[in-house]
From TrEMBL, chain A:
The lineage of its organism: Bacteria, Bacillati, Actinomycetota, Actinomycetes, Pseudonocardiales. Belongs to the ABC transporter superfamily. This is ABC-2 type transport system ATP-binding protein. Residues 19-250 form the ABC transporter domain. Keywords: ATP-binding, Nucleotide-binding, Transport. Pfam families: ABC_tran (PF00005). It comes from Lentzea xinjiangensis. GO terms for molecular function: ATP binding; ATP hydrolysis activity.
UniProtKB/TrEMBL annotation, chain B:
It comes from Lentzea xinjiangensis. GO terms for cellular component: plasma membrane. The keyword Membrane applies. The chain crosses the membrane at residues 20-38, 58-82, 112-137, 157-182, 189-208, 244-263. Keywords: Membrane, Transmembrane, Transmembrane helix. The keyword Membrane applies. GO terms for molecular function: ABC-type transporter activity. This is ABC-2 type transport system permease protein.
Length: 334, 266
């Protein structure tokens, strides 16, 4: 699954990035909400922004949309620097930030019409059609005449998504889009994200639900305590660092001592060993084992789940919650 | 683009239940006044403009607006200003507008336009209902002025139109200052409380002659002078003073709102 056209960070790309931040910092009074955030959102990617509550996801998104002024740092959105280029870039950006905001006394349709009136890219004649299309797309056509006040949380979320999709967008930013949705609704959101991806739009999804990100994203950025602790292609991130080999062997003792001599870290696990692949490779491990006379029945690549990666990256907080991270590590193997 | 934004703003304001209730309340004022004068048969009481109300239906709109300007119209203006920025921020709709994007300066212009259009509408509505109710209850035999002369109906209507413009301007000036408060908070009630408290405090301060150095700076000081439109011929000095004062409030309010809005995190 690894695409060869990767490593966008190294390339001196000018057009291949939909959004980029450099050294972003935001202080609210004496608290630092976000610090040293260097984010890169490749064009056409679906970037999952992951982090526990309060890790700075929403603040970063709000700065990216020009809603909040960074205390420090630079932002580039669709090729223009913010905040000066906001009027140029933002028409191409659809956003659902911090939950859907609408007027309770207007119906869903009326709310969208009001949003549409302020969309620079939408000619007046097309407003009606665009609103109906957006309602249809998020499955709200039946409830469009009802007042927003009476909407369920899921319906409100859908309306927010509809507002973000009123115009074909180059970039769609969705902050916790599946909040309050039932499983069917969540699947629909994923479908919409996949559609946007197919059409070539760039998507930025923030979430604290790991499965959601793993299912829909091509890229991941992990935020923790206001900084980006990891980012890159999802497949690469999952392979990097955390990969290990699960070796099934009856001669655990022999294998362990051989590996130890070869300075390869390993520990017994179940009916075999778990061998860390840091600084070594799978063939080397197996060669070492075979030379030492340990029978290898089976060797499987231990793919790191996003959950494990996330746990490792945000370790400090996970430690407080006891063993839950370790449990998923063992349970989620293979 | 701008016209459709302005149109959307006015439609949005007109759709609000509280706007409709407010307008209904405003319309009741001239009706109640006309009815009250009509039933208070006989002594025709009161000083100044109230004294010439009897048998003089054309004065009802002027008297209504004159009364309402002290409390009711500033209240309505403050509600609109409060909903315009603080209310939108509270509902999270301000973010949507800013991301659309609407530049912050233009957004303020849209809000100020909405406030002005709705103020003009409300004041005109009160005047029209005042003319109708006044004519129905008290009769219409031209317009008697405070100077004792009588104007023709056409001239009277012109005076009423002029008064409508003057009162609207005062209302917008109050609203602009309220907008400045509105840009600083997410709580519409704070805006209304701040505005109404100021108006009342200003009126109280206006009562103390020891503070007469302060009076030229209080917008409320200018309210009574507007009634000069009912004199014949119209003496313009007080009217122009009041309007100039309101203009200062409008400029300062808009300026503060713009400064706050441009640097605001939302």
């Amino acid at each position: 699954m690894t695409t060869s056209a990767s490593a966008p960070a190294a390339a001196p790309s000018t057009t291949a990035v939909a959004a980029r931040t450099k050294g972003l910092r935001k202080e609210y009074g004496s608290t630092v909400a976000v610090d040293r955030v260097d984010l890169e959102l490749p064009e056409g990617a679906v970037l999952g922004m992951l982090g526990p509550n309060g890790s700075g996801k929403t603040t970063t998104i709000r700065m990216l949309l020009g809603l909040v002024r960074p205390t420090q740092g630079e932002i580039e959105l669709l090729g223009t620097p913010l905040p000066d280029g906001a009027e140029q870039a933002l028409p191409h950006v659809g956003a659902l930030v911090e939950g859907p905001g609408f007027h309770p006394f207007l119906s869903g349709r009326e709310n969208l019409v009001r949003c549409a009136a302020f969309e620079p890219l939408l000619p007046k004649k097309q407003i009606k059609q665009a609103v109906e299309d957006a309602l249809e797309r998020v499955g709200l056509a039946q409830a469009a005449h009802r007042r927003f006040r009476g909407y369920s949380l899921g319906m409100k979320q859908r309306l927010g998504l509809a507002a973000a999709l009123l115009v074909p967008r180059k970039l769609v930013v969705l902050d916790e889009p599946t909040n309050g949705l039932d499983p069917a609704g969540t699947r629909e959101i994923r479908k919409i994200i996949a559609e946007l991806h197919e059409q070539g739009s760039t998507v930025l999804v923030s979430s604290h639900l790991l499965s959601e990100v793993e299912a829909t994203c091509t890229h991941v950025a992990v935020l923790h305590r206001g900084t980006v602790v990891a980012q890159g292609e999802l497949t690469e991130l999952l392979q990097a660092g955390g990969s290990a080999l699960h070796v099934i062997t009856p001669d655990v003792e022999t294998a362990l001592s051989a590996l130890r001599q070869a300075k390869i870290s390993a520990r017994p696990l179940g009916d075999g060993l778990r061998v860390e692949l840091a600084g070594t490779s799978a063939p080397q491990v197996i060669e070492t084992l075979v030379k030492a006379g340990a029978g290898v029945y089976e060797a499987t690549r231990w793919k790191t789940g996003l959950e494990e990666l996330f746990a490792r990256l945000t370790e400090a907080e996970e430690a407080e919650r006891g063993m839950s991270a370790v449990d998923t590590l063992d349970g989620g193997a293979r | 683009m701008i016209t459709r934004q302005l149109g959307s703003e006015v439609r949005w304001m007109l759709r609000r239940p509280r706007t409709l209730i407010g307008l209904f309340g405003l319309v009741l004022v001239p009706i109640v006044i006309s009815f009250g004068i009509w039933t208070a048969d006989g002594d025709g009481g009161g000083p100044g403009i109230a004294a010439i109300l009897r048998g003089n239906g054309m004065v009802v709109p002027i008297f209504t607006l004159f009364l309402s300007l002290n409390l009711l119209l500033p209240l309505v203006a403050s509600i609109w200003a409060a909903d315009g920025l603080a209310g939108e921020a509270q509902h999270g709709t301000l973010r949507g507008l800013l991301v659309a994007p609407v530049s912050r300066v233009r957004l303020l212009f849209v809000k100020l336009f909405g406030l002005t259009a709705m103020s003009l509408f409300a004041v005109t509505l009160m005047a029209v209902v005042g003319i109708i109710a006044g004519t129905a209850f008290l009769g219409n035999d031209g317009m008697m002025t405070l100077s004792g002369t009588t104007l023709t109906t056409a001239e009277g209507l012109l005076r009423i139109a002029f008064f409508v413009v003057l009162v609207t301007f005062q209302m917008v000036a109050v609203g602009a200052v309220a907008l400045a408060v509105s840009a600083t908070t997410e709580h519409p009630l704070v805006v209304q409380a701040a505005t109404m408290t100021s108006i009342i405090v200003f009126q109280v301060l206006g009562q103390f002659s020891s503070l007469d150095w302060l009076h030229p700076f209080l917008i409320t000081t200018g309210f009574p002078g507007l009634v000069d439109v009912m004199r014949d011929p119209i003496p313009f000095d007080q009217i122009s003073d009041s309007t100039l004062l309101a203009g200062c409030y409008l400029l300062i309010g808009t300026g503060l709102a713009a400064i706050r809005l441009v640097t605001k995190d939302s």
